[in-house]
Write a structure and sequence with these properties.
Layout lengths: L4 E4 L6 E4 L1 H10 L8 H14 L9 H4 L33 E4 L6 E4 L12 H8 L1
Antiparallel strand pairs: 1-2, 3-4
């Protein structure tokens, strides 16, 4: 279904291979293709971890960036390197959810981050249609 692609890193300009198994992994989770090579992704992840900034200190996408530094999804250094098939933050108890108003349809939206003023927040239905 997928075939290996050569992409160019937005940071260092080097070409890197986006393998078929990585493309499948990204597609299953609704991620866009990577803009940076595995080394630069790992460096950005390390910088976020050291400053305490970033998407979340729990699970989710921010933590999954390490899959490429572990040798790729198919080699076992993968997305759920911390705990079997669960991935994400499942072993840390329930994720704290926040209530906001969807910027698109006006319905209530439950999101796993604290909404900040000026940034749009979407309910899961609107978010899905915008990504899709």
């Amino acid at each position: 279904m997928y075939s290996d692609k050569t992409l160019t890193c937005a940071d260092c300009g080097q070409e890197f291979v986006f393998t078929a198994s990585e493309q499948d992994f990204y597609a299953q989770r609704g991620f866009t293709e990577p803009r940076r090579c595995p080394a630069d992704r790992a460096a950005r992840k390390a910088a976020r971890a050291s400053t305490g900034a970033g998407y979340s200190s729990g699970g989710g996408y921010g933590e999954s960036g390490g899959y490429s530094s572990g040798g790729g999804y198919s080699s076992g250094g993968g997305y759920s390197s911390g705990g079997g098939g669960g991935g994400g933050g499942y072993d840390r108890g329930p994720r704290e959810m926040f209530t906001a108003t969807c910027s698109n349809c006006g319905n209530e939206a439950r999101v796993p981050f604290r909404p900040t003023s000026g940034k749009p927040v979407y309910c899961s239905d609107c978010f899905r249609t915008m990504r899709g």
